[in-house]
Amino acid sequence: MLQVKSLHECGDLMPHYVDLIDAVFLAEKSRSGSITSRFPRVFREQNRSGLYVALLDNSVVGSVATSDLTVQRIGCSVQVKMLGLVGVRREYRGQGVGGVLVRSVTKFLRERSDLCVLWTTIPQFYATEGWSSFDEGVVGTWRRSGPCGTVLQAERPWHRVCSIEEIRREFLVELTVRSAEDYRTVPPAVDDVWCLLAGDGKKLQAYALVGERSDTGIVYELVGDRQYFGELWGRVQQRFSCVYVNDSRGSSSYQWFVENAEVEWRRQDLGMWLGCDMAQLSRCPPPHVPFFDRI
Q1: 11 or 148, higher pLDDT
Q2: Residue 190: which of 217, 221, 224 has the closest Cα?
Q3: For residue 247, which of 288, 211, 193 has the smallest C-alpha distance?
Q4: Which of 16, 63, 117, 209 could form an SS bridge with 220, CB 3.0 to 4.6 Å?
Q5: pLDDT tens-digit profile of 151-194?
Q6: CA pair distance 243, 215, nearest whole angstrom
Q7: Strands 59-73 and 192-199
Q8: pLDDT at 92 over 70
Q9: How confident is the model at residue 145 (pLDDT cuts 50, 70, 90)?
Q10: Closest CA relative to residue 16, chosen from 73, 57, 46
């Protein structure tokens, strides 16, 4: 019989949990490293109760991760529970393991959290469990016609946490709360994440968080004074032959890209929410969770 338990109940299964998610999200996609080092927010010791396994005959055959996120808005803070890294061992796929796992965890979340979010390409399934679609996300694509060039002149994000946070607090009206450790996040699609900074010589005024994999780059964030966006974007263009941009409609960076860069855009409606229905979503949209903060 299939059972769903948190690692708080069965912590000795952590190595088997990690083996499964590394196989599903990294090895099967020819990616390196370990998920635990890529998502420090999720796999810290205090979040054991947010990690779930599906057990069949005492073997780990499925996994789900959840993590807490605080979003600061003007005058208030919003607490959000994120769900992600839903994985099923290859030999058990197509047997309903993922469905049982998600239903069980959705039930836990409904009982313990007011607002939850996930991102999926199969919204029909989650809709049957009470999740509602709402996402202001967009993804842009830029390609160069010739070969890419220079080495990216950038730094590790966790080396410049104070600078990044100062810019975020000055220029964002809604921001996710991050610790220094959160800046060690490396989403599975890239091998490294870099921070590019720009300013007037006296003060840093803008930054970009950019993922790198071979000659492909992913811009996760472009934040700050818009007059420095062109400089940062130019440095990204020099390094890569293809760049994807994760953004949201209405953001300052998206508006700048639309006005100043030859980027092709499409909607990225992957977000689904639990704890509010479509009527609520239309009256009071939930916070936008940047791609860099997601699981």
Answers
A1: 11
A2: 217
A3: 288
A4: 209
A5: 788 999 999 999 999 999 999 999 999 999 999 999 999 999 99
A6: 9
A7: unpaired
A8: yes
A9: confident
A10: 57
Question: Tens digits of per-residue pLDDT, 73-88?
Answer: 888 888 999 999 999 9
Query: 3-state secondary structure string, the chain?
Result: CCEEEECCCCHHHHHHHHHHHHHHHCHHHCCCCCHHHHCCCCCCHHHHHHEEEEEECCEEEEEEEEEEEEEEECCEEEEEEEEEEEEECHHHCCCCHHHHHHHHHHHHHHHHCCCEEEECCCHHHHHCCCCEECCCEEEEEEECCCCCCCCCCCECHHHCHHHHHHHHHHHCCCEECCCCHHHHCCCCCCCEEEEEEEECCCCEEEEEEEEEECCEEEEEEEEECHHHHHHHHHHHHHHCCEEEEEEECCCHHHHHHHHHCCCEEEECCCEEEECCCHHHHHHCCCCCCCHHHCC
Q: How far apart are the C-alpha atoms of 4 and 13, rounded to whole Å?
A: 12
pLDDT at 280: 64
| pLDDT > 90? residue 105 | yes
| Closest to 194 in 3D by CA, of 231, 241, 157 | 157
Amino acid at 258: V
pLDDT score for 153: 82
What domains lie within the chain, and their CATH numbers? 3-135+271-293 (3.40.630.30), 137-267 (3.40.630.30)
The length of the chain in residues reads 295
| pLDDT at res. 110 | 85
Residue 29 clears pLDDT 70, i.e. is over it: yes
Cβ–Cβ < 8 Å for 20, 101: no
